């Protein structure tokens, strides 16, 4: 079994409250973008972020489940589900951490998750990275083109027959099979038009492809650029087994 990347270790150490150990994940000055706190830089700010994060995670009796990593030489992407106990009951919070890598450690970490499972509302999060031209592997390229065009049939054709799409809010918003995918994407695109993304990074390990992006438009509605990441897992057929999205974009009313 390979050693967990700084992206996966960050979640483990945050839940454990190991402030000093988090700092050792970084090469040079730590830089973290967090959905709840924003951007922090330097060891002192990082320590405050870890203490704050551990505090509310400890109160929520947080557990880490279903850790999956996508790794490339320049970047590591760790997905996990945080099991939380909040006032309204048990909540599963999907979280994704992206680590830029160099010199045997992380140069920056970006954490992505929705605030909907925590508060019942979305928090607008600005674009974190500049957009750039990227090369997307199949079938992620076809999926992105179909999503931008708002073509539900073409989106569903990118998935295996029992494929799944999970929205940022978690397992209750997971759509499975061709019929389930068609219903889920039809609801997502009910305003008419597509959801074009500004691509920022691509991390591909041959079986999973993670794409960091910014959402700038949802159907006919222009949006302030908002950050997110999605992980596309291929099946044996070369089509998508599952697409998992981590952002906090508030969809416009249909």
Topology:
Layout: H1 6-16, H2 19-23, E1 31-34, E2 38-41, H3 43-59, E3 63-72, E4 75-86, E5 89-102, E6 105-112, H4 116-119, H5 140-149, H6 152-157, E7 159-166, E8 174-176, H7 177-188, E9 197-204, E10 208-218, E11 221-234, E12 240-247
Question: What descriptive keywords fit this protein?
Answer:
single chain; 254 residues; alpha+beta; 6-stranded mixed beta sheet; 7 helices; 26% helix
Task: Describe the fold and architecture.
The protein has 254 residues and is an alpha+beta fold. The chain has seven helices and twelve strands. The chain has helices at residues 6-16, 19-23, 43-59, 116-119, 140-149, 152-157, 177-188; strands at 31-34, 38-41, 63-72, 75-86, 89-102, 105-112, 159-166, 174-176, 197-204, 208-218, 221-234, 240-247. A six-stranded mixed β-sheet has the order 2-1-6-5-4-3, covered by helices on one side. A six-stranded mixed β-sheet has the order 8-7-12-11-10-9. β5 (89-102) and β6 form a beta hairpin. The longest helix has 17 residues, at 43-59. The chain is globular and about 50 Å long.
């Amino acid at each position: 079994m390979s050693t967990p990347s700084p992206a996966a270790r960050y979640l483990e150490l945050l839940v454990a409250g190991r402030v000093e150990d988090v700092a050792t994940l970084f090469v040079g000055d730590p830089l973290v973008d967090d959905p709840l706190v924003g951007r922090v830089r330097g060891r002192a700010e990082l320590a405050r972020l870890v203490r704050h994060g551990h505090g509310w995670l400890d109160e929520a009796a947080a557990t880490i489940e279903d850790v999956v990593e996508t790794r490339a030489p320049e970047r590591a992407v760790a997905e996990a589900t945080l099991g939380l106990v909040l006032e309204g009951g048990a909540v599963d919070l999907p979280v994704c951490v992206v680590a830029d890598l160099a010199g045997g450690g992380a140069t920056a970490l970006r954490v992505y998750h929705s605030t909907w499972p925590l508060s019942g509302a979305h928090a607008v999060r600005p674009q974190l990275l500049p957009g750039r031209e990227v090369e997307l592997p199949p079938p992620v390229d076809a999926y992105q083109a179909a999503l931008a065009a708002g073509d539900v049939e073409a989106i569903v054709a990118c998935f295996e027959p029992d494929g799944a799409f999970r929205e940022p809010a978690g397992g209750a918003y997971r759509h499975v099979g061709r019929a389930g995918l068609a219903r889920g994407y039809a609801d997502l695109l009910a305003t008419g038009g597509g959801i074009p993304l500004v691509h920022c990074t691509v991390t591909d390990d041959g079986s999973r492809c993670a794409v960091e992006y910014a959402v700038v438009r949802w159907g006919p509605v222009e949006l302030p650029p908002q950050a997110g990441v999605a992980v596309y897992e291929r099946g044996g057929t070369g089509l998508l087994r599952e697409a998992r999205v981590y952002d906090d974009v508030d969809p416009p009313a249909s």
